[in-house]
Amino acid sequence: MELAFSDGFECPHCHTRLDVASGGRSLAAWAGLAAGWLVWRLTRNSGGPLGDVLPELYAILAFGIVSPIVLAFSAGLELAPAAPVVDMAAASSHGASHGGEHH
């Protein structure tokens, strides 16, 4: 379930945080754009009352279908960068220095 809301996950064996490598994302985005362009090119002369809208809709759907499929098959995993540490004491003292008012 964690993968649905992020671009990485924690390895179940060594508990290391992993992310999808940027090369796989780029390849998936370019493949999706190429598929969208190809579908738009093939459907751009369609007639009818929705002839101007349907090629764009089909292109968006092609991008949305092709990109995740290419990403699923070409994505590599890499170690995720360490999350920044937030100092809660410094964050809570911000309001006190302004008299507790928000600006």
Write the layout of secondary structure elements.
Layout lengths: L7 E3 L6 E4 L1 H22 L10 H21 L2 E3 L8 H10 L6
Antiparallel strand pairs: 1-2, 2-3
Helix pairs in contact: 1-2
Indicate the low-confidence ranges by residue numbers: none
Beta-strand percent range: 5-15%
The 3D shape can be described as elongated
Radius of gyration: 22 Å
Number of helices: 3
SSE class: mainly alpha
Number of strands: 3
Mean pLDDT: 79
N-to-C order of helices and strands: EEHHEH
| Terminal-residue CA separation | 38 Å
Strand order of the largest sheet: 1-2-3
Portion of residues within helices:
40-55%
Largest sheet: 3 strands, antiparallel
What does this molecule look like?
This protein is mainly α. The protein has a domain at 21-79. The chain contains 3 helices and 3 strands. A hairpin with a 6-residue loop joins strand 1 and strand 2. Helix 1 packs antiparallel against helix 2 (54-74). The chain starts with 7 loop residues before the first strand and ends in a 6-residue tail after the last helix.
Provide keyphrases for this structure.
mainly alpha; 51% helix; 3 helices; three-stranded antiparallel sheet; 103 residues
